[in-house]
Amino acid sequence: MAALSTPLDVHEPNSTTEAVVDLSVSDVRQLNAALHAPDVAEKVPSWRVTHPDGRHSIAVGLDAEVSVEIDGHVGYYCAGMNKSATVTVHGNAGVGVAENMMSGTVRVRGNASQSAGATAHGGLLVVEGSAAARCGISMKGVDIVVGGDVGHMSAFMGQAGRLVVCGDAGDALGDSLYEARIYVQGSVKSLGADCIEKEMRAEHLAELAELLAAAGMSADPAGFRRYGSARQLYNFHVDNASAY
Amino acid sequence: MLRESATFDRATIADIQRAAETGIYDIRGGGAKRRVPHFDDLLFLGASMSRYPLEGYRERCDTDVVLGDRNASYPLHLSTPVTIAGMSFGALSGRAKEALGRGASEVGTSTTTGDGGMTPEERGQSKHLVYQYLPSRYGMNPDHLRMADAIEIVLGQGAKPGGGGMLLGQKITERVAGMRTLPMGVDQRSACRHPDWTGPDDLEIKIRELREITDWEKPVYVKIGASRTYYDVKLAAKAGADVIVLDGMQGGTAATQDVFIEHVGIPTLAALPQAVQALQEEGLHRHVQLVVSGGIRNGADLAKCMALGADAVAIGTAALIALGDNAPHLDEEYRKLGSAAGFYDDWQAGRDPAGITTQDPELADRLDPVVGGRRLANFIRVMTMEAQVIARACGKAHLHSLEPEDLVALSIEAAAMARVPLAGTSWIPGQPL
């Protein structure tokens, strides 16, 4: 195992509670190790990361109530497997932002690439711009709110949680869906296998209003449509073979 | 005189009749049943005049192996190179998983989770536990990732390279459904591709993410089903894998289409030399360890894998048999299910009389995890001792000192695949004399 070349270069310019890590002089491994410290929430609850410059795996595996503000664009898997932490990307995010998140909040001020929130079990992922293909793929309980559009195959095999799309959805939305619920304000290019439009009842309007409020989105819940699983493919039957 | 067709034999006729009646392909457990070139087609050249044997009862032949020391701060140091392959809670009962953990721990080796996550029974009884990271990510939890001793990214398995998993509804009990975030009783589908990466460049980034999450402590394995093995191993090793797990077509599955099991992938014997060649060309042989599975049954198979360049093996089907699968005393119950002891492969059905491949509480209670663990430990000890017998006869003080030069082949096919001479000749098919 290679030894770390330098200690983490942390600056505390303005306050005693916010640590600033400049990734042009420190590396991601040092940053993550510092964020994994057992007492990080008590000692340094607020972090700011500068010059991320598309680096991968920034702020992954967090397991504490800390706030991490990232000033710029991030690469793959930012905030992957997040627990409890609040991570904000002031830029765009690469593939798999907040993948397998368990809890906490991840917010992307710009756009997100493919597989945003993939397999995530909990927490809230907000993408203020648009998300590319497979947003919420195999989601397992996370709430995802996208201010713009989502690409094709979003919520593919979604098992639980809610996906809210304030813009349009691409092809094959909700393909092979289990129990995840999907709300779309704009158009849906096509629905995937076993995904159907469902009645928007009062309880759905209420949960959608809560999700929009939590995400800081001003959209009117009444303008959305709800989609979910028809549950026709839950058990294989030869008559459904053409659906796969 | 009745004459059976070689093309339309009785099994083929029965398959056609079954398909016509049911309208669905046959799903079963286990690995390929067809005869393929295997380790039985190789023999060791014991020492005599030109080689010097070790004294069987006096001179040591070590068996330990270190897995994953390329990058991880805590590699696995196992007492025997016989590990337990990934098998899920869901496919197996909780007590069966516990028994696997107990048996593996007793002999100082590792066991492996499967699709659906980590159970307390398994973690609690496993000294060395490898946590599988599968496309479905069912039950995937960073806490479990941190509790594991190693991480195994599963790209495929030998029974079905290119295929996803399935667990039929009858085995999706409340506990299984809860762990996988699924409705009870559904036919669980598992994706065949990972949801957030595609290809070797992405894999390198994914491996790095897993290292970051676990602070570079855990070895990261990559498991592949044997198909384009030479290229897959090169790409996985270059992507940063610490350990390659190579699973041949005889490797078992809990539930897969029979046509997939029998017709996709290549035999373990054919794949292993390709993997070794790939690692050697990258200068990574013995630096990236190679774990081989798929039809490993005894110490001879273990020794032959070692001789061909593996660092360890993994057993799945053999481990279940050691626990009690297909036991003769259950023959009557197997027959009630339309099978017989020695033939039972409906591991997907959840009605296993041995209580291993089931979620039925009454059936599962039949397996005593302490007794099962002891049986498995016995079996692994026997495998290890058998391999030591062979290694000493070849003059080797460690199983890893066995080499291809110690082997010959009984058939032209096996000689070509294993890249060792046909017995009694110096001919290796495909190589210049």
Automatic annotation (TrEMBL), chain A:
SUPFAM superfamilies, per the entry: Alpha subunit of glutamate synthase, C-terminal domain (SSF69336)
MF (Gene Ontology): oxidoreductase activity
Entries under InterPro entries matching the protein: Glu_synth_asu_C_sf, Glu_synth_lsu_3
Protein name: N-methylglutamate synthase subunit B
Lineage, top ranks: Bacteria, Bacillati, Actinomycetota, Actinomycetes, Geodermatophilales
From TrEMBL, chain B:
Alphabetized GO MF terms: glutamate synthase activity
Record-linked Pfam families: Glu_synthase (PF01645)
Stored InterPro entries: Aldolase_TIM (IPR013785), GltB (IPR024188), GltB_archl_type (IPR043578), Glu_synthdom (IPR002932)
Domain Glutamate synthase, residue spans: 72-324, 353-395
Region (Disordered): 100-124
GO biological process: glutamate biosynthetic process
Keywords of the record: Oxidoreductase
Similarity section: Belongs to the glutamate synthase family.
Protein name per UniProt: N-methylglutamate synthase subunit C
Natural source organism: Blastococcus aurantiacus
